[in-house]
Amino acid sequence: MKKNKIFFIINPLHSKGVKKLKNLIKTKFKSDKYDLNILISEYKGHSIKLAKKAVFNKANIVVACGGDGTINEVGQSLVNTTVLLGVIPLGSGNGFARHFNIPRNINYALNIISENFSTLIDVGKINKTFFFSNFGLGIEARFIHEYSNKKIRGLKGYIISFFKTISLYKKQKIEIEFNNVKKIIFPFLFLISNTSQQGYNFSITPKARANNGKLELVYSENHSLLVLFYNLIISLLIKIKHFQLLKYSDLNKISITKINDASFCLQIDGEILNLSQKKIFLELVPKSLKVIVPKKILN
Q1: CA distances from 24 to 69, 196, 289 (A)
Q2: Which of 68, 85, 95, 275 is surrounded by the fewest CB atoms within 10 Å?
Q3: Residue at which a domain ends, from 82, 116, 150
Q4: Does residue 122 sit within a domain?
Q5: Which of the four pLDDT bands, split at 50, 70 and 90, describes residue 114?
Q6: What are the respective helix, strand and coil percentages of the chain, to the nearest 5?
Q7: Which residues lie below 8 Å from residue 289, measured CB to CB, with a gap of 6+?
Q8: What is the pLDDT of residues 173-184, one digit of tens each?
Q9: 103 and 138 in one domain?
Q10: Is 236 in the same domain as 165?
Q11: Of the residues 74, 90, 116, which one is the last residue of a structural domain?
Q12: Which candidate, 201, 235, 226, places its Cα nearest to that of 218?
């Protein structure tokens, strides 16, 4: 019987128990059934190279062990291939894993991978870079930039970074064009989402689905920061499905042009994206990534 060739790419920043994780992996994926390879990411961007190496070596499955940023790096090389993406969620927010109900319990997550049930999902693309959960350029991108510079991680770090970002944030002027609509806005928040989760079970795009041929855009227009922040808190408390004062649209492509001199601060899947150009083009790439998911999940 031909063995499945499986690569686990581990981001050690997301797990103090790397040795324990390796042992669990070796226990679940025996050498009589699997050609097992365990690789350790050593720096930012390294997982991209490791995933390319796995594909070159004819992997059947590549498993990202880390947060949404690790999933993004690993997934870049798997789009439009037959290689399956597996996920062991070791990050803080784990938005991608939460969308697909992949548990944080490592044993359960490994069981899902061993069951090898997959679904085909859409992905987003900016220039040559893919994203799998979301893209943003409003306050959420500034927040991620602030959080990435903090030594305090987890929920506490998120809260500290959020309030600092709110206090310092300056809106940028952009022109957007999509669905035969062209307008200039000063967004407080601007998010394009492929999944229903932004992490920690928090969502402002609960209707987003990763396999419906659409991305969901949510943005604010020209409201004051105080009004928008108040609305955000109230909406969270009463758990409404759509935030008041925010605009929602489905789309499969959009162009975004920076109008003023403020620097573009962009994020994809919770990581800062550095692009120097004044205009960016974003599009959907339908049914282009195979993801291992629990058998009951088909979105």
Answers
A1: 23, 30, 26
A2: 275
A3: 116
A4: no
A5: very high
A6: 30, 30, 40
A7: 75, 78, 79, 80, 85, 120, 121, 122, 123, 132
A8: 899 999 999 999
A9: no
A10: yes
A11: 116
A12: 235
> What does the block give as tokens for 123?
């992905």
What the block records as the tokens of 48 is 């991209």
The kind and range of the H/E element at 103 are: none
Reported as a single tens digit per residue, the pLDDT across 34-52 is 999 999 999 999 999 999 9
Question: What average pLDDT does this structure show over 189-210?
Answer: 88
Shared domain for 74 and 169, answered yes or no, is no
Residue pLDDT, tens place only, 250-290: 999 999 999 877 667 889 998 888 888 889 999 999 999 99
Interacting residues of 178 by C-beta distance below 8 A, sequence separation 6+: 217, 249, 251, 253, 254, 255
CA distance 128 to 6: 26
Please name the residue that has the structure tokens 């962009």. Answer: 266
Q: Which CATH number belongs to the domain containing residue 264 in this structure?
A: 2.60.200.40
Give the lowest-confidence range in 123-127, 200-204, 228-232.
228-232
How far is the C-alpha of 62 from the C-alpha of 235, rounded, in Å? 38
Cα dihedral sign, 209-156-273-275 = positive
Report DSSP letters for 12-38, one per residue: GGG-S-HHHHHHHHHHHS-TTTEEEEE
The percentage of residues in the chain with a pLDDT greater than 90, rounded to a whole number, is 59
- The H or E element that residue 243 is part of is none
* Residue 261 and residue 185 share a domain: yes
**Cβ atoms of 281 and 133 closer than 8 Å:** no
Report how many domains make up the chain. Answer: 2
